[in-house]
């Protein structure tokens, strides 16, 4: 696991990159979809004093975007890799203090998928959230660990939904185009589901790139 900071001459900017072995996990060059994950997810969450869970800390863009919503009262971020949490606490990544210095934030070292599939949840028994925002795997078909595959099933998503309050929202980032089969899975569990394509400039390729943000919501009277 490594964090790299470099100057990119094409983008003309300082870039932070995270790698796991030889695989690139994230770059500060491409954060539009991570921000939209929080914005779109919370835009679908009703009410005030929202309790939000983020799966995957990364460079912190999704978590910080969630905190920008004044309705958010509590933010729990679950991250499986201890060095990522330490980078934030030591201020080694951009704008880390905006996250670690906010009293609404709690950083949890743990396996989001194991917690999501457990009846105990990510924080304490019986705790439920208004929104769960997930940005860990590249997509439902391209997972970082084969053990994650059980999450992307009707049973796995159903267990996740049990950690949401009525009308609660599940939002997820994907590097792949919208996947109709995954949308069908979401419709099996949630009252509403849709896929948003988020486009952004890619200076390295000289053209726009695109990610997907899935939004699913429970019915108002369901857990």
What are the salient characteristics of this protein?
single chain; about 220 residues; alpha/beta; Rossmann fold; 7-stranded mixed sheet; 3-stranded antiparallel sheet; 7 helices; 10 strands
Characterization of the model:
- Strand 4 (50-55), helix 2 and strand 5 (72-79) form a beta-alpha-beta unit.
- The radius of gyration is 17 Å and the shape is globular.
- Helix 1 (32-43) packs parallel to helix 2 and helix 6 packs across helix 7 (180-189).
- The protein has seven helices and ten strands.
- The mean pLDDT is 91.
- It has a single domain, classed as Rossmann fold, CATH 3.40.50.150.
- The longest helix has 12 residues, at 32-43.
- The strands form two sheets. The protein has a seven-stranded mixed sheet. It has a three-stranded antiparallel sheet with strand order 1-2-3, with no helix packed on it.
- It is an alpha/beta fold.
With strands numbered from the N-terminus, the spatial order across the biggest sheet is 6-5-4-7-8-10-9
Q: Give a count of the beta strands, DSSP E runs of length 2 or more.
A: 10
Q: What is the C-alpha radius of gyration, as a whole number of Å?
A: 17 Å
H/E element order: EEEHEHEHHEHEHEHEE
- Give the class from helix and strand content and strand pairing: alpha/beta
Overall shape:
globular
- Count of separate DSSP helical elements: 7
Largest sheet: 7 strands, mixed
Q: How many domains is the backbone divided into?
A: 1
Average pLDDT for all residues:
91
**What share of the residues does DSSP label as strand, in percent?**
25-35%
CATH fold field value: Rossmann fold
Say which CATH homologous superfamily is assigned: Vaccinia Virus protein VP39
Q: Please bin the fraction of helical residues.
A: 10-25%
Task: Write the CATH architecture name.
Answer: 3-Layer(aba) Sandwich
Spans where pLDDT lies below 50 across 5 or more residues: none
How far apart the termini lie comes to 37 Å
Name of the CATH first level: Alpha Beta
